[in-house]
Design goal:
The complex is a heterodimer.
Chain A: E1 10-13, E2 17-20, E3 30-39, E4 42-52, E5 57-61, H1 68-75, E6 83-88, E7 91-92, H2 98-104, E8 106-108, H3 121-129, H4 137-141, H5 145-164, H6 180-193, E9 198-202, H7 210-227, E10 230-234, H8 238-244, E11 247-252, E12 255-260, H9 262-266, H10 269-276
Parallel strand pairs in A: 5-10, 5-11, 8-9, 9-10
Antiparallel strand pairs in A: 1-2, 3-4, 3-6, 6-7, 11-12
Helix pairs in contact in A: 3-5, 3-6, 5-6
Chain B: H1 13-37, H2 43-68, H3 76-96, H4 102-128, H5 134-152, E1 155-159, E2 162-166, E3 180-184, H6 198-216, H7 219-229, H8 231-236, H9 241-264, H10 277-290, H11 295-311, H12 319-335, H13 337-355
Antiparallel strand pairs in B: 1-2, 1-3
Helix pairs in contact in B: 1-6, 2-6, 2-9, 2-10, 2-11, 3-4, 3-5, 3-9, 4-9, 6-9, 7-9, 10-11
The chains are: A alpha/beta, B mainly alpha.
Chain lengths: 282, 360
């Protein structure tokens, strides 16, 4: 596994964790403390604490069924947490629904791809741009100048975003007819289009071949650097996680078992145990 | 990327399709006008012209809910009847107060009927749009029946003091002796003075097409279709699901209301039972046969299926049989894998000629 030569320095923040030193003047963009959710009698996630710096790339790993996607669903308010607080860019997300959470600055992709199948690639991106397109229904129906101006702007913006993944030439293709890898990339572009402060990626490299994964890693870094946003990703591909994440959280049975830089995580006995099973006899 | 993807030419597909729909309506109007002036139009067929227009609008508006918004509504005739009866009442009251010209009565009636149906749409939409799939269908079905039954016991009259309403009988309306009864319970609207014209119908269709097509090709339409395709992803992309479902549902109700006025003001008597479950299903048949989400298909299906029973009148005993067989054949033709593959091949060879090949 690769070691990161420019290891990020971390500073303590008042709250549930550490953020990269370069972000210390800004407050953590996403903070969750004592987060938990019960489904009936089952505690799916408990005592989940996280702080993500404004331009940090974080990783969330763990064995299958550890509760990683549940954490994403909590952070994006698909589920309302039973316990705990989520602060998004300094705002308490209590009482928000998914739509409002997105508008407050959190965007995500899905483990099982969720595109708008019958719409074109460009229209999918324009859905992400929806809240930044500034005209209302009457001017659309009457085709007033405002409509044309804003649609032109949205069209240009959509192509510009698609260009990040070299997908601008696919703009008129139906989303459902895209190959698998391109569908995953389109989901990322659509999430980016909502102009988020935090981007949550749920297994972005699933089903990709090694060279595509390599390209994806570069693109995630590029996204972080161009848009100055934080990224939190769930991934099973350890090469990707160890390669780009600056800070990693390991989840098992709904609880955090380890937190730290890639090197710390690789050498953590608890993590090894969670992945490989206990070595000793009990 | 190494993937091979066929790109279509850069033609704007949406606007092209939109223009085709306007074209169909204009050609339809021109052909009918020609036939009329040549005296080739039978009386029975001529009587069908306004209902055809009304049903085309109904099909278009239901397609907005079923095709664009992806919700199954089985009570569309309910909105039509709300429009029809409010339109009839308004037109009747205007006539009573001395407005005899048809055009202003029709225009005001259409506006009022559309607004009333829109209000009904909002009232129904608030509870109903929380439901999904089959539940929505069941509740809208019930709504259609409730509206029909309310209208069944509604009495409306007009005199010098204004409108009088009653839900028991005519005597309870407290109407002056020189007043006119407009709506007479189960008998429906009686003595309606006709105001609908074929031209008005055509104008209404074009207006409805204009609104639907421009709406679909805007951020509103995209949001509605995004919710249809994937509700969870739409929410996660910052789309207000309830708002956009409501916009689609209420716009559809408004259009159905306008269609109802056009339809109602075409007959001298209109009974509430005309707008029952069968009418809702009939309109749904137009939409399904024309292709869900396909506006051109809705227009053609509504026109053909409204005329068909009339054309088959000479076969009296067999006409519903033939009608049913035609329906079944169309369903088979549009759903059969082989026939669909054939269609696709035809379409493909057509686009290839126009679009040119890229990356193939």
């Amino acid at each position: 596994m690769s070691n990161n030569p420019n290891e990020t320095k971390y500073v303590e923040v008042p709250g549930p964790g550490k953020i990269p030193e370069r972000d210390k003047d800004k407050r953590p963009v996403l903070e969750a403390s004592h987060l938990g959710i019960d489904f009936g009698g089952l505690t799916a996630v408990d005592e989940f604490n996280i702080a993500i710096g404004a331009t940090e790339i974080g990783g969330l790993i763990g064995p299958n069924g550890a509760g990683k996607t549940t954490v994403f669903n909590l952070l994006t308010k698909v589920y309302q947490p039973t316990r705990g607080v989520i602060m998004l860019d300094g705002k308490d997300t209590h009482g928000m629904n998914t739509t409002q959470a997105n508008q407050a600055g959190i965007a995500r992709t899905f483990q099982n791809i969720r595109l708008f199948d019958k719409l074109t690639v460009e229209e999918n991106v324009k859905i992400g741009l929806h809240n930044s397109i500034g005209y209302h229904l009457p001017s659309a129906v009457l085709r007033l100048p405002g409509y044309w101006k804003e649609e032109k702007k949205a069209h240009d913006k959509a192509l510009e975003l698609l260009d990040i993944f070299d997908m601008a030439d696919l703009a008129d293709v139906k989303a459902s007819s895209l190959p698998y890898g391109a569908q995953r990339r389109l989901e990322i572009v659509r999430a980016l289009a909502t102009n988020p402060k935090v981007l949550l990626l749920d297994e972005p490299a699933a089903g990709m071949n090694p060279s595509e994964t390599e390209e994806l890693m570069n693109n995630i870094r590029k996204i972080r650097d161009t848009f100055n946003i934080a990224v939190l990703l769930i991934e099973h591909d350890m090469k990707l996680v160890m390669g780009i994440c600056e800070n990693i959280i390991v989840l098992n049975f709904g609880k955090i078992i380890a937190k730290g830089t890639p090197i710390e995580i690789q050498n953590n006995p608890k993590v090894i145990e969670a992945y490989l099973g206990s070595q000793g006899e009990e | 990327m190494g993937e091979k993807i066929r790109l279509l030419g850069k033609t704007n597909k949406h606007s092209l399709r939109g223009l085709i729909n306007y074209g169909i309506i204009v050609v339809f109007f021109a052909v009918i006008t020609l036939l009329k002036s040549a005296g080739l139009l039978t009386n029975a067929l001529e009587g069908q012209l306004i209902p055809i227009c009304a049903y085309i609008i109904m099909a278009l508006s239901l397609n907005l809910v079923v095709g664009i918004s992806g919700e199954l509504s089985l009570g569309h005739a309910g909105f039509m009847s709300v429009g029809a009866f409010s339109g009839i009442i308004v037109a009747g009251a205007m006539k009573y107060s001395g407005v005899n010209a048809n055009a202003p009565r029709l225009i005001v009636a259409v506006i009022v009927g559309a607004i009333m149906a829109g209000i009904a749409g909002i009232l129904i939409g608030i509870p109903v749009l929380r439901l999904r799939g089959d539940y929505l269908a069941i509740v809208t079905l019930a709504f259609g029946e409730i509206i029909k039954n309310i209208l069944n016991c509604l009495y409306v009259g007009v005199d010098a003091k204004g409108l009088h309403f009653s839900v028991t009988d005519e005597a309870h309306m407290d109407m002056a002796a020189n007043g006119t009864t407009l709506v007479r319970g189960p008998m429906g609207a009686v003595g309606v003075s006709k105001a609908s014209t074929f031209i008005a119908g055509i104008i209404l269709i074009i207006l409805v097409l204009f609104v639907i097509q421009n709406m679909v090709n805007s951020r509103t339409g995209r949001a509605i279709m995004a919710i249809r395709d994937n509700r969870i992803a739409a929410e996660a992309s910052g789309i207000n699901v309830t708002k956009y479902k409501m916009i689609a549902f209420v716009s559809s109700a408004v259009m159905a209301g306008a269609a109802g006025v056009l339809y109602g003001l075409n007959y001298s008597t209109v009974a509430p039972k005309k707008f029952d479950f069968n009418t809702s299903i009939l309109v749904l048949v137009f939409v399904v046969l024309g292709g869900i989400g396909n506006m051109t298909g809705s227009i053609i299906a509504a026109a053909v299926l409204t005329v068909l029973p009339e054309l088959l009148r000479q076969f009296q005993d067999y006409r519903m049989l033939v009608y049913a067989i035609v329906l079944i054949l169309v369903m088979i033709a549009t759903n059969n894998e082989k026939i669909r593959a054939l269609w696709k091949r035809v379409a493909k060879s057509f686009t290839r000629k126009k679009g040119g090949e890229v990356n193939e």
